[in-house]
Amino acid sequence: MKNVDLNFSTGILPLDSMLHGLKPGDNVVLRLESIKLFIPFVHRFTRQAYAEGKEIIYFRFALHERLVPEDVEYHIYHLEPEKGFENFVSQIISTIEKFGIGTCYVFDSLSNLAVDWYSDVMVGNFFMLTCPYLYKFDTIAYFALMRNRHEINTITNIQKTAQVVLEIYENEEEIYIQPIKVEKRYSPTLYMLHKWDKKENSEDVIYPVKESATIAKILARKLQPWLDFRGKKQDLWHITFKQAQETLEGILLGEISPVQANIFKNRLLKMAIVRDDLLFILAVNYFELEDLLAIGKRLIGTGLIGGKSVGMLIAQAILKKDDPKWEDILEIQDSFFIGSEVYYSFLVENDCWWERRKLCAEETFLTNLEETNQKIMAGVFPPHIMEQFENMLDYYGQAPIIVRSSSLQEDAYGNSFSGKYESVFLANQGPPEERMEKFLQAVKTVYASTVGKDALTYRKMRGLIDMDEQMALLVQRVSGSIYGNYFYPQAAGVGFSFNPYVWDRRIDPKAGFIRLVFGLGTRAVDRTDDDYTRLVAVNCPTLRLEKSFSDILPVSQKKVDVLDLKENHLTTHRFRAVMKENPNIPIELYAERDAELEKRAEESNRPIPFSLVLTFDRLLRETNFIKDFGNILKTLQHAYQTPVDVEFSVNFFKDQKYKINLLQCRPFQIKSQIKIIDSPSEIESKEIIIKTSGPIIGTSIATTLDRIIYIVPKIYGQMGMRDRHEIARLIGKINHHPSSKKKKIMLLGPGRWGTSSPSLGIPVIFAEINQVSIICEIAEMHSGLIPDISLGTHFFNNIVELDMLYIALNPEGKDNYLNRDYFVSEKNQLLEIIPNGQQWEHAIKVIDPPLINKEREVKLNMNSITQIGYCYK
Questions:
Q1: Per-residue pLDDT tens for 230-251?
Q2: Which of 525, 534, 621 is nearest to 575 (CA)?
Q3: I need a labelling partner for 820 at 20 to 30 A (CA). Which of 286, 450, 578, 679 fits?
Q4: Can you give the pTM of this predicted structure?
Q5: Rounded Cα distance, 353 and 376, in Å
Q6: First and final CA of the chain: distance in angstroms?
Q7: Sign of torsion over alpha carbons 677, 678, 679, 680
Q8: Are 360 and 452 in contact (CB under 8 A)?
């Protein structure tokens, strides 16, 4: 028996490298739009095989052009599929047996067999018979399968049987490759979309596409046959979508009246999109029937897509309908939606529904929280949903994704649910089974957050506990690019069309503001305890509170949230560490050098240290970004007829071209007016309890206080971490005590309220302070703590939604004052509310002025226009 060379090559060296070579027995399936995309791959493969002296067999049975080039010697077998399946397969099996081990095979397009056999099923049967037989003989075989021409079962059977499955795309005459399956091989970039730069007279180059905007542009047009509602399912849901599709096609052909489109449009809107009355009006005005059908083709399961998904989609529709230019500026969305009924079915099938019901009932409210959470996390999904999850993850490959909550009540007019439900970032690295495991964990984490204390308390407080609340999910591609081992957008943040913090008379509150960060937007929407962000008034983008560069340094962003692709999770790194991985980022738009630091180093003959400081000045001053974003806010507010809150990311490319990704849009629950109040007449200094020069955020207020809760900074600063958590829980008990209801309460404490780090403030959750009217943060716990203006964070949104006022107080600062003696001298009501709270009397002061002296009121005058505020007797 002669020795057979079992080393194989695709004939494209970088493709060999990407796939870790072809292995003996590989059946290679290329899924593509047209046969012309198959030809370059076949040419390279057969020429290489011929050069290595391998036998080449070409099975010819279709009418399309010949696949194997003329300069290659090969055996051609003309087959006649019209003579029947058995005859066709037998000829192929005989040929395989004749040529034996190590032979190379090329087949005409498998999609043509479905025409000859009048059956898609038989194409799958042919593949499942032929491929394992080829595998036994250590061959390499190339197959082409046309996209969008086959039933999902046929595609699934072929994919399960093949060893290598590649999706091939063409965009602007460039070829892109995305591996879907590469058996027994893996690399950190294997399942990413790759671009093939074909070189005729030099080496080919194949490299991963790193930018989310480019990937989404190429893949978004791809149909998902596994979500095609025109399949065999005959339930009302799929029949309705199918009829709507047929109606649209009939309208385009002139066979059906356009009036019919509105009938199906309204039906699909109520069935799958939105039931909130105000959002429904927006959806009717800005969604067309084809938009709804496109959503249906990316919907896993059945049910509504939820508030967050609706807000994102409506925002894009509003802008594109307003001006076609937004088509070029907005990053293409290629999200998937997991219907709300998937969640509901999950609860029922995993026996969690009754536990959830008990958690919401008045008499058993919040009981057995932990047990219910654990039960949800241990739940499983049915096979048909798992199969759709698998196909979705195949689509994204190894691109980072985020699994976001999108409940029925979320992001609607009147209820934002800001920060109440979880969203989970996935770096999405590793082999398919590992990626699936982490994805399922993320889905169940979001589901479990629906029975979290914060969410349930919020629903109860807002009168929503008895209303239908199902959890749909929004699965989004993370916007950004790969920089070294990290993935993140260049900039991200939140934008509001109304600015409640007017620290300068030049600021127009109706122009809006932006909270901007470098990297992932988590540092903009989550209240970071040890860092700062850039606040931008849209009509005065370069205006800052800080007067000099030295003032900017301590309040500039120092840390960056990124997805670490090597470690496979979301993480935070120092800005300087992240920059070491970023040779290609246009950092000059976001940071500038500390010239003074560099000068000092040079004068002392020391190496120049890392001197970049994130200011965002050139982004705001020298590009059209702020102008465009201001127009986005203005356009969306006009459509919503109320201020809006938008999450976004932005990435720059060559020639200052950029893409904005609108990730979320919802009504901003704020009074869109600046209330004017009179300043108090001259107050004697001995009567002042606190005086602040800001920040004061919210509606100006002149009122009388019923209760003051004061956490003594000096005592709190000396406590251990455990005691600080005890203080937070105690505040929650005071907040929920019957005596706190319907009272004007001011809460004062050191550091940051709602922090996750007790070393930097008081770690309450929002449900523990939701009865409070005024929140004051005192910069007095440790040196260097600067009050953080948390505009745009979930914490801030909660304050706004409950119409709370936020005050920062720096006792050592100019025009700031804290009368500590007042809190020592006044009677502490703590034990009246918490009888067993003796050990905390020295740390928490609860003062009820009306109980002490009905004729001696404590008044509050906080002016958000002048940024001057008083609390006085």
A1: 665 668 888 898 888 888 888 8
A2: 534
A3: 679
A4: 0.83
A5: 10
A6: 105
A7: negative
A8: no
